[in-house]
Amino acid sequence: MKKGEERVKSIIKALDIWLNESDALQQAVDQTVNDELFTRHDIAFSLDHIRASVTEDTLSGWSNKAGADTAPIKNKTALCLHAGNLPLVGFQDVMAVLLSGFNYAGKISRKDPYLLPGFLELLKENGFGKSIQYSLNLNEYKGLQANVVMFSGSGGSAREVMDKLSEMDIVARNHKRLIRTAGFSMAYLDRMDDRTLSELTEAMLRYEGKGCRSVALVVSPFGPEELMDNLGKFAEKYWEKYPPLKKLSPKTRYRYAYNKALGKKQQLFRHILIQQNDMELENENIICMVKGDDHECRKRAESNLMRLQNIYTVNPDINIKGFEDRIAPLNSAQTPPINWQPDGVGPLRWLVENGQS
């Protein structure tokens, strides 16, 4: 049996116990909900997606395609600085590190401190032993000398974090960095039916609008007025079924009043404001709708190149020139495959390539 196959089987064994037999998972879910970190329905959605997308076949296929079986990494450590904006948002990075053969050192986010550690403990008990360590406190990694760093966040925060890692000797002098800064996705809609509007609602409102895969900009020939008018019943129905934790922020409330004074078309759905034309990437609670064709979509994508994750469509024949590798079906916005590429970079292939140097 190849070592790569052994790693896959160990992961699947731990995952099966975690998802189906572990009381610790339910306790972690309850604690997360009680602390009002995430809603129970969003946690359940994330766990159900892991159940559906992470199998022995999908992990083996990902590992083989990335070359992890033929070039396993030995005696090197990957430091993962996990975000906490979504439940279990760091799960893919854990998979990538373990499949690559790197040792895993995880900085768990204080915004999601309960869910991932239980799985990490089961991984340690099922074949990975001392190759896994994790902590909520970065200071515990002083002197670690990690060979690679994987980080998700803004460009400004990344610089501050990397400086701190160097000062504390947490990273080796010649370490490699994978810094992801994408903050939102777009949708280009050339049709407007109930199915499309339902899929758009899920893409915009799941996880309360947070995450780089969530839609923050919609470009469509139909225009903002028609889209908003038809979207209303779907958004309200969604919030009735999946009520959010977040409340309307003063910043968003001010923008709503400002738009109203200008007579600008807008709709407010709980804490999410949908408005026409103007993007406000610094406010994740605002979604912009623009009238335009695929050329307008390309223009908007180019102007937000460093922050853009995906462009979702409902028409497989749509082609946004220069962004072919970022186009994905709208109905896959919140259910990416395990081998999806944040910021256009496959984490497992990146680890394999950089682990050889």
Give descriptors for this structure.
357 residues, seven-stranded mixed β-sheet, five-stranded parallel β-sheet
Task: Give your account of this protein's structure.
The strands form two sheets. Strands 8-9-10-7-6-11-12 form a seven-stranded mixed β-sheet, with helices on both faces. A five-stranded parallel β-sheet has the order 3-2-1-4-5, sandwiched between helices. With 357 residues, it is of the alpha/beta class. Helix content is 43%, strand content 18%. The chain has helices at 3-20, 23-34, 40-53, 56-66, 91-100, 115-128, 155-167, 194-205, 224-241, 250-262, 294-303, 347-355; strands at 77-81, 103-107, 132-135, 146-152, 171-180, 184-188, 215-220, 266-269, 272-276, 286-291, 308-313, 327-329. It has twelve helices and twelve strands.
The overall strand count is 12
Residue-averaged pLDDT: 94
Specify the biggest β-sheet.
Answer: 7 strands, mixed
The residue ranges in which pLDDT falls below 50 over 5 or more consecutive positions are: none
CA-based gyration radius:
21 Å
Distance between the termini: 26 Å
SS-based class = alpha/beta
The helix tally amounts to 12
Q: Give, in spatial order, the strands making up the sheet with the most strands.
A: 8-9-10-7-6-11-12
Helix content: 40-55%
Shape: globular
